[in-house]
Amino acid sequence: MEDQQAAAAAGMAHPEDEDRLVQDVAEQGYCVVPGALGADELATMREAFDADRRAHPRCWELRGSSRDELGLPGTEGPVDAMGEWEVAAQGVGESGRWQSEPLPRTDAFDYCIWHPRVLPLLERLLGPTLRLNGMSAMSRDPVSEPVPPERNGAHWQLFHREEGASFAPDHPFCMRTSMVLFYLDDCDEGSHCFSIVPESLATKKALPHRTDPTSGRTVIDQPFTERMWRNRPVSMLGDEIADGVGRPDAVDILAPAGTAIVTNACNIHAGTVRQSERPRRSIILWWTHGPVDYTPREQKGRPYSQRHNNGHDMALPARLLRHPRWAYLFSSKPLSEEEEWLCLGIRKPQQPLGGPRL
Ligand SMILES: O=C(O)CCC(=O)C(=O)O
Q: Which parts of the chain sit beneath pLDDT 50?
């Protein structure tokens, strides 16, 4: 009992709670950490979130569509600061999904990186090679249109496995990447929410997989149409995916603001969008295994720092790289070949017979 009180006072999980969360991840591929952010943290983060959106509108992107793709007028008019994309009007795109990469501009969300209950859990799940791979602030804005009729239990969703279904079959948790969401707003039946299809470790281990010949990565071997499910048209996918398929086996994570959701990012998941006057703001982190390449680079000719890039490549601020306690989470120490295989499912191409030519 005293132990439990001491752990709670330090903001940490009691070891038994942590065991249960690890068990949940083994059984379903995700777990829910209640009360990860308190009222003060939520107030500070919401304020920083909205202030960043107001101060840096050009750094926020409506995911899913450019006006060109949508055939909307306006591309010949003034384009955005980068001269490339014109953000689409409200109501198009992936159901009003606005996203940005806030780390270079604010330290307001740093606490989500070294959260005293979530980080120890991630260390157990991913192991000692874990590294932060990205962080996004994401808003699912209010949606005024009525949702299409519910089919197969689906609302407006775009279900997918992360990273093109990259996979680490030999890792103890089959966990190449963990996606962690912190809800900054209450999620219930009357709001948007995050949804995920439970999948046990045993099921994952039995999934068919193959090596992608270009990247050397292991990927789950399911045709694209079996990896993406949607029931609302989005223009980013110019393919034949049928609308209205949905995933009736998905669980809607309905939970109060401050909840953290820790996932194996290869579980099938989606944002569920409902007609709602309320936004769902979230901080999303991607954790993978080192090294993490934070070298600034150009994205499609536009400076990386001006644009959200799904959180997977960004400038890492010096305050983190030189952090007295947490710098190891951003280390670029290379993985050994064995670790690359175990943690990332990447096999080095075999040397040609006779060894390398000199
Ligand atoms: O939380 C959401 O709305 C969707 C997030 C998601 O699916 C992703 O970033 O891959």
A: 1, 65-92, 225, 233-241, 294-313, 357-358
Give residue 171's pLDDT: 96
Nearest ligand 1 atom to the CA of 280 is 3
The 10 Å Cβ neighbour count of residue 302 is 16
Report CA(10)–ligand 1 centroid distance (Å): 30
Residue of 133, 148, 162 whose CA lies nearest to 330: 133
Quick one: CA dihedral 6, 9, 11, 16, positive or negative? Answer: positive
Are residues 249 and 82 in contact, defined by beta-carbon separation less than 8 angstroms?
no
Please give the pLDDT value at position 309: 41
Question: Could you tell me whether strands 298-299 and 302-303 are parallel, antiparallel, or unpaired per DSSP bridges?
Answer: antiparallel
Contact call for residues 184 and 261 (beta carbons, < 8 A): no
Cβ–ligand 1 distance for 101 under 6 Å, the answer no
pLDDT number for residue 176: 93
Q: Which domains does the chain have, with CATH numbers?
A: 18-344 (2.60.120.620)
Contacts of residue 138, Cβ cutoff 8 Å, sequence gap at least 6: 97, 98, 99, 100, 281, 282, 283, 284
Pair type for strands 130-140 and 193-196: unpaired
For the Cβ of 140 lying below 6 angstroms from any atom of ligand 1, the answer is yes
Q: Are 99 and 60 in contact (CB under 8 A)?
A: yes
Residue 163 near ligand 1, beta carbon < 6 Å: no
Which two structure tokens, joined as six digits, stand for 109? 């969300």
Please give the Cα distance from 242 to 231 (Å, whole number).
Answer: 8
CB neighbour list of residue 50: distance below 8 Å, 6 or more residues apart: none
Using the Cα atoms of residue 311, residue 315, residue 316 and residue 319 in order, give the sign of their dihedral. negative
Indicate yes or no: pTM above 0.70: yes
pLDDT, residue 57, reads: 74
pLDDT recorded at residue 151: 63
* Ligand 1 proximity of 61 Cβ (cutoff 6 Å): no
CB within 8 Å of 52: residues ≥ 6 apart: 59, 100, 102, 105, 106, 137
